Queue: 4 jobs
Job 1
Amino acid sequence: MITFDSLTLKAFIEENRDFFVGSRIQKIQQPTRRELLFTLRNNGNSRKFYVNINPQFHHLCFINKETEARRFLEIPQKPPMFCMQLRKYLENAKIVKVNQPNHERIFEIYVETFNELQEKIELCLAIELMGKHSNIVLYNADTNIIIGCAHNVGAEKSREREMAGTLPYIYPPKQKKFDILTVSGESSSPSPACPAPAGQPATTLSNTPLLHLAQVPYREMFSDGEITEHLENFFFFSKAFAAQCKNQPLEKLKDYISLKGLSPAITPDYKEFSLFSELLPDSICFDSVNDMIDEYFSHHIEENKIKTITQELKTLINKKLAKHIKNKTLMQEQLQKEENCFEYRHFGDLIMANLYNGKDFVPKIEVYDWENTANISIELDPMLTLKDNANKFYKRYNKSKKSIEKINEMLAENEIQIEYLEQTLYSLEAASSYSELQEIKSEILPLYQPEKKQKTTELMEKEIDGCKIFIGRNNKQNDYIVSKLSKDEDYWFHTHGCAGSHVLLKCTEPTDKLIFECAKLAKEYSSAKLTSKVGVIYTKCKYLKKPPKAPLGYVTYKNEEEIIV
């Protein structure tokens, strides 16, 4: 991914200047601390102007319904303080001018409005798109005093430029770069206006340190070779754009900076974008600069959001899974300890059988074990009679027996939870959209409710030989297939012993070929899709049963058959 640069900002302003100037700000919303959404109206046309000052995705553009959905904008019920401040000063205000300070990544929107005394004043909204230093600042254009910022910058954060209400607004320090439009490629000697000092070699770009560029007014003549090797030392050339323009002739570079021959494009893998498609072979072209910016950044925001939510949910599920696996180990260890409960009952039986020839209050008794056909010695409590010792063994037996029953019951419940969590992990890996992740999130976190009601995602549907096949991609969809969609004579498919999708075949008399195709789908949409072979079980839906209080998507089955795929 590459960042939003000053040349892209310049192209965006030139393309949309006519709409900005004269438009009115109808609505201002702030979805997050680093995002703003303005509704602008001009000449009977309304457009949503989106601003993002996230260090990773800083950009601005007009968005449409599709890309707005891909950015997952959720407007809070209680607007932040900065949003309220912008509404106070800018709502219904008219934009009179837009501007980009020389070579800077700053977009200035000048508006005409009225103060508390109904006096006409001019305010400026400065949108600074400078990586981690990005900010949005509202200041009075007449007095240059800041009214408010998206986030304040104190002396501890910046020694050169503090940003807060009541402070004067100043531009960032000037960049120490050259203007390529003042450069000629005919010679590498310095211009007469800046002669080289006597006894020293001529100053060229290659031997001029970047730190001293500010001391050089400008250079009129550099060789093409020097320019292509040091493009980052010129205005409007970001790292990414300089890399794209390598080995381009000087006149072509000047045309790029002058925005001649604009043809916005994005590489198919969405790693790069450019204002000139000729710099990106085999790229996807766009009709406007705004469409390119909107598509490129909405793709990366969506991708990042999905990745972030997926990772958060995976961490949560893995934590729960580790806990259940640990509990399983502990219960199995406890089960092994209780295994000798039948020995307690046997000892009690032997003692009761020898009451006639034994003595009370002795530390042990010698008896004949008829099961093992040998004499054995049983340790006793010398404070109790033989009968009380026998009862003591029976009590221990009954206690251990109940413990074994309870542990086995808990182990079965624990196994169901492990299987459910493994299935949920598979669903997360298979999820390809934000709406699917929202379904899984609401399933894992019952208290979580999205602010906007999300529609249930549609089931994946296929058709083979005229028969419909439905595939569930998460536990909610799997549960819907089993409990709502299936009929008694339909067929249900699932991989044996591993997580996967529930596959439903709506056909009462399927052929062997159709059954095998459904089994292949069950393997494809499972965690075993990359294995060489896996067993797939299938049965009629009337043989499925969902146990009481079982998690979503969990079923038991009988009369099943298995296919190796």
Job 2
Amino acid sequence: MTIHRCSTPWSRALLASSVLVPALALIASPAKADPEALPTIVVSPTGTATPLSQVASSVTVITAADIEREQRRTVSEVLATVPGLNVIQTGGPGGTAQVYIRGTEARHVKVLIDGVDIGDPSDPNGSADISQLLTGDIARIEVLRGPQSGLYGSDAIGGVISITTRKGSGPVRATASAEAGSFGTFNQTAGFSGAQDKINYAFNIIHLRATSVPNVPDRLITPSVQQTKSYYDNKTISARLGYDFNEDFSVNWVGRFTNSDYRYPNYGFTAQDTGTPRQALTRGEAVWSALDGRIKNYFGVDYTDLSRPTETSSGMSIYNGQRLKYDWRSVIQALPGQTVVLGADQQKDYYQNNSIYTPTGRVDVSNGNKGVYAELQSQFAERIFVVSNVRHDYNDAFGGHDTYRIAPAVLIPGTETKLKASYGTGFKPPSLDQLYGSYNIFGSITLGNPNLKPEESTGWDVGFEQPVEGGRVRFGTTYFHNDVTNLIQYTSFGSYWSYLNVSQAKTRGIEAFAAWTVGPQLSLRGDYTYTEAFDAQTDEPLRRRPKHKGSVTALWTPTDQWQVTGTLLAVSEWYDVDRVAYPTKYVWSPGYAIVNLAAEYRATSQTTIFGRIDNVFNKHYENPNGYLKPGIGIFGGIRVATQ
């Protein structure tokens, strides 16, 4: 069955903006670029620090300064405007938040914090829930789009989100902030960092609280019933330490612990259910260099413990997932312009389900995986760059699996046009819950299927990037295409539900951007994504993948003290499951457009006053279906820092 939809006002606006922003960029007045500007360095596409201009992969870099300017408090908010991504969150702060990249499933996205995979072994799909990730200690986020299993292994069919926290450097520096505003919001941060002699350190405490957030649209509530709002309280503690024994050997450690209290409307919308998710992760790493740094070895071990206790009127359920991983990576400067990366890893996932809905009362299962990989990063004649990698995984439940990727880029002399392309494969094993889970919810029985096979993908993209006016203007376009087979689908078998490898999907589309540094006080950037994602067997659209998404961001610094940012985000309609009639009824959810404003004033060298208005025009919309997003919100606060 083919489903056709008429274009909406929002989709027409997005198409217009995709033409308008590049047009504005092309008529920019001449000016010289800053000759002292440093190139943007990325790590996620290759595993080594590489100038972005030499990378063929589509990657978006978000810095701590970007997050601070726009005053985004959660990672889900930060990612909302990134091209190629669709962020879904069930309500306001604390609601489950997942990311779809280039039309693939949320479970096809690998999320890392300081190299630690936070995909949840206890999640029904094994997905990473980013709802608990606060931004107060984040230094950088790299969003890498396209299949990346050749380097990152499983779960990287759609791409990789790599988050790096702040590392201490220089004299000791202390920071603190406080913010209050709409929806009972009261947020605070405190931290200190620095480096002395051979040691570096960073410690942070972050608290976010929103006590009265509308969660359910009025259309689902009986007029005589007062809406039950959601409550969220998140406390996060993080630390990062490093010690250099000498110029050839050092050790590093990171740790992060989050404890949350999330109360949200129950199924009838008349009372609250309660979740108290906890996330703990840690990683230790030793770095050894040899042959004057031409060989650098990294030996690491990391551990995650993710717990999701949930209490409803029916009783308490607890879902626990743990992961223990050992890894080794060696970066070898083999020849001038030739870098070899070799690596191996071994991990074990554990899942415990102690749920009132589990007929046996408890599920306790595990699965392991071993992987080896090799990568060659090549540069020829200072204008041609090629990254190629290959990986072999052996999974305890499914046996061996091979993946690979190749990504060439060419810089054209004179115009400095970058031509880029990539081709790669990916795979995603079934989650432990899909294999072995067992539920009986109000008479609806769900059973796992231990005979499931891994989902597999092949994807490619091709595009260009063009600087103009000495780099003051940049624009580019990338076309992408993915084929996913053996997709796991939740399927009815009459008296019960289970999972089967029954689907095939295709996703394709265009990512376009234009950035214009109008002058020293004003810069503009526009992004547009067109996505087609559909079931290759039925032609039905895949859920929660809007065809059109666009954003425009403006940064204005009228004086050295003032800084103002404005962001427009517009999303077209999308196909979704009806919240009330799940999983049997599907609907089209209308698109939306919102505007956010943020400003800050540097009162002194140590004190900054800031404020923001989210959803300026108080747009009422749902994303996903049945979950109301917050209306207009006004917030303000103060930030202090020692020199």
Job 3
Amino acid sequence: MTIIEKILAAHSNQSVVKANDIIDVFIDARAARDFGGANVVKNIVDNGLKVADASKTCFTFDCNPGGSDQKYAANQQYCRMYARENDIAIYDVDAGIGTHIAIDKGLAYPGSTFVSTDSHANIMGAIGCFGQGMGDQDIAAAWAKGSVWFKVPESVKITFKGERPANVSAKDIVLNLLSIFGANKLLSYSVEMYGEAIDNMTLDERITVASMATEMGAIILLFTPTVSIIDELEKRSGKRYDIIKADADAVYVNEFEIDITKFVPMVAKPGHPHDDTSVESVKKTKIDSAFIGSCTNGRMEDLRIAAQILKGRKVAPGVVLKVVPSTDEIWNQALEEGLIKIFKDAGAMVSNAGCAGCAAGQVGQNGPSEVTISTGNRNFEGKQGKGYVYLASPATVAASAVSGYITTADDLASTPAVFEKKGTVTKNAEKKSVEKGNKKTEVEGRVWFIQKDDIDTDMIYHNRYLTITDIKEMGQYTFDNLKGYEDFAKQAKAGDIVVTTKNFGAGSSRQQAVDCFTSLGVQCIIAESYGAIYERNAINAALPILTYNAGTMEAIELQSGDNIRVNFISGEITNLRNNKTAKLNQFYDAQLQIYQNGGLLG
């Protein structure tokens, strides 16, 4: 049998399995991440299931360490509560990437089986373990039953001939393989890796190559553990493992021989991990940012390689370098070895351990038109942000970061490249149409009378929407964090007027808490008082706001739904339902001037 057939047979109570057999596979370690973990729990709870064996079950919070996104934070806390009730281990936001933790702590080991909501769970092939990323229902089934069904894949054998070139890293090896096999020539195969160059690879290097099996379409890239790999695993986990290997008469659907001496340093061009070319062919491509980390290249050896290049050098002017170790243990080791200081002295930002930009939840994201060179495993459009991402080795990324353009460690720029002034921002700017002069100073509209003091800017416009810069998009989120008014934006109509009480707009300086009303077409806001910054923001944005003294709204018997007339200059307010009139504090001269000018910048 092949390696994968041996592992699956041993976990299905069968002496022999063969390709295309469908079997129930017992899972030794069953993980769920913060990305998908909440759905795993929901599937279990909604179907009345229980966890079969808590000792084989865990959560790994690696997509968004720290819960900087509200939805991630909610999911993480939901999983924590479930874990407490069911004695399930959590590798929380301080731990790092779940698959790496599983290897280092012996949750996964040669000959074992491991599943996770992580599509890169097949990274376990690095140690001769069957790892598989699965969907929420699959993982829920594994948690509840201890096993899942699986179709035994066909196996392919790749043998590398020759000696690996000195300047070719593990990342270069897998990018060269992607250039040969693309994204689908190894689709659904279990791929076994052989040759002297493979035998000599370290654990960290094997992890790099195995981590990109998914990008090649393979079920898994499997390495036969060597004695030195077994020793390394024992050193990390304190456990001794047997070496698992294929039988001499194992059957493969295909076998390939590859001359590794022809491999060169590579990059994957933006958009596709399999759109690969030599670094030489894209040298001098100007970059905006660089990233070192992810489950592919966040290991200790990766950080040492980067630090060796960065030591005594500075990141090129204007270039941003982000470094994210894969686990907290590696972070601490990097600190002890002085690597963190090297990164900081070079001008890099070092973040806590985790998946980083790959998961769109931590550092590593880029903006529109930003060119990034990254050690990640994916550069799909939009995956790591709105810009363009090249994939490369830690050495190439570090060399590029100090040079300011894509290059190799043996060809660093003598003088870092600087950015040209192209006037792109001014050229692409949208000219704002500002209505000036003859603006209405008297309005009529339907009232929303919100009788709550201290409505803060998070209630008006929550911080989870602060990345929005287009006013047209802001209105839909108005008051969605104000209890009882979550549907305000759906029910409000252009021309409405908001009346409230004391200290409206307390809190932050966010302009969106003003602009969201403009987006909805709210004609004016009337409050007993405003937060100081909010008042300035509203006046400067030409959103009419007025204040009133205690008793004013009682005098006109104001109710929600009434129609009122408001004169900004005289301060007169009239309830059109009963024609009762009272006085507001009218616009002062500077406010009127800014309003007629269409805003402070009009």
Job 4
Amino acid sequence: MNRLLEWLDDRTGYRNLLNETLYEPIPGGARWRYVWGSTLVFTFVIQMITGICLWAAYSPSVQTAWESVFYIQHEMYLGSVVRGMHHYAAQVMIVLLALHLMQVIIDGAYRAPREINFWLGLILMQIILGLSLTGYLLPWDQKGYYATQVTTKIVGSAPVVGQELQNLVQGGSEYGHHTLTRFFAMHAGLLPALLIFFLVVHIYVFRRHGITVKNPNRGPSSDFWPDQVLRDSVACLGVLAVVMGLAIFKGAALSGPADPSEAYSAARPEWYFMFLFRFLRFEMVEHFGQAFGAIYVPGAVMLLIALMPIIALVRGGHRFNVIFAWSLMGVIVGLTVLSLIEDVRDVEHQAALAEADRDALRAVELASGPNRIPIEGAGKLLREDPFTQGPRIFAKHCAACHRYDGHNGRGRMVMTADDDTGIERPTLPTAADLGNFGDRQWWRRILTDYRNLMQPLENAGYDVESSIEYGMISWFEESVEVLTAEANQADVDAMVEYLVAQSGRPGLELNAELMERGEEILSTGSLTEGEISTCDDCHSEIGGEFELGTDNVGIPELNGYASYTWLKAFIDNPGTEQFYGENNCMPAFADKLSSSDMDLLVRWMIGDYAATEVKPYNSKVELLQIEIDDSSGNEVANADEQPAADSE
């Protein structure tokens, strides 16, 4: 072995290289505060190794990027751990970078003759930030897609050459496939190559001048090996433990596939850029423009940092540099915390985050399902999913009057700002809540609680009380006492079972015996105790089939009620004689909804979509009811306060 090593040393001179590397003298002895540079290099090595592993499975195109990341995350062996390590190592690298920079400034390690090395470190910092920005887009998910658009727009706001730079970075005037490929080229090729080059030069210059020691007499001198190597190794193992823990127990997030047609209000930069995001939202900064807040001010700050070696030549310059560094760090931390607190308190943002999480879970569900990902790309998964798109269509076209479990279909309450105070309060619905439309609970309320179910009509000016003498209200008033009697509850169950069967919903489990009894009651009106008017006194004869164009008298058809065909025909034109006729106050949507949107909306309402474990939006029924009760109470109170003559 010795002869082999002698031969190798003769050919390569590796022993001199080892001596030069390991036996650097450290005046005052090894210290824990010197570990930050080594941990940064170690973290970059983690990034390189995991990045190459990810590269082996990643496909950079708008139709395959999200799909390949999904494969890495959910299919590839240990893929989620590798991706998580890459993701969190990037974030840890930012923290270590800040600590290293502060240590260099506090120790004065930027002063002559080390100013060149300090400037090299600043270049490395910009490259690391560039790696973070370019990597954010690569999953081609909603979060990265919309957040990176902000970055390219900031580039475009640069003076003189801004637009040309933006076109160069994003691969043309449009944001799309070439943007992704160019960001990938920068992230996996150009920037790592630059980082390695400047890192080698940085380490070379650092070793030329040696470590900066504020008090070389604090203890006996030692060599880099083994004392400082031991401390560096322990620190690197600590970094590895943190990265591994986050990768295994938290994992890297993957939001829904990028969809340019779908707005994404939950987009935010990574936490280490949140300070700049918050700074740009200050009214004064917005007044001066994006270039001022995102280019001029940060540029001036970076220039001041770069001038620190020169400023230190002036008496008191080093003290100024340290105070400025601590102040800047305080501002960055303060703005970051402020931004995070504001986001937590922002109801709309939290709702957008919740919806983004739902979309992410749903996309993974569909991609993991029997149909997998279509050849057109993962974007099609959510675009053609009734469970995802139905609530959006409902919120856009239906929530002006209806609610869905008290909200607009997307988990948000419909709000209106007060003209005088500007305070937002829930808007009262003017039509029935459709949260359980056509199911057993809906029909039970139709039969036993019709007045309260249709109470929102009063908010539209419809006088329920004056309509008691005719229509469904009249039937309800005559029948409610009989239907709520204890002896007739089994009969109510039978009626509900028959009526809910009309929807023909997917997965609906029915009791044939109950259905038969229900049809009999609805046709004859005979209950266990007492009688009710039969449905076919007004509606079409019970037991038939729903057919478009059937002649009726402006009273909704019960046969096929809430089925796909019935509901589509109703939404198309509720004013036909087959539904409400002249009594209708709901607009027709035949010309307002495309055939695909109509299909998605109806299928969502009847539950015709792939099974899901995604939890429904939280119900807002109780919150809305409180507002309704308060509104009723206020109206009564205001009426009581009026003079008698006015009230008459």
